[in-house]
Amino acid sequence: MRICVVGTGYVGLVAGAGFAEFGNDVVCADVDAGKIERLNRGEIPIYEPGLSPLVERGVKGERLRFTTDVAAAVADVDAVFVAVGTPPGPDGAADLSHVWDVARTVGQHASGFTVVVNKSTVPVGTADRVLALLREHGPGKDFAVVSNPEFLKEGDAVSDFMKPQRVIVGASDERAIRLLRQLYAPFTRTRDRLIVMEIRSAEVTKYACNSMLATRISFMNEIAALCARVGANVTDVRVGMGWDERIGPKFLFPGVGYGGSCFPKDVQAIIATAREHDMSLEILEAVERVNERQKRWLGEMVQQHFGGDLKGKVIGLWGLAFKPNTDDVREAPALTVARLLLEAGASLRLHDPEALDTFQVALPASDRVVYCAKSYLAAERADAICLVTEWPLYRSPDFQRLKQTMREPVLFDGRNLWDPEYVRELGFTYYSIGRP
Ligand code: NAD
Question: Residue 84 C-alpha to ligand 1 middle, in angstroms?
Answer without folding.
Answer: 4
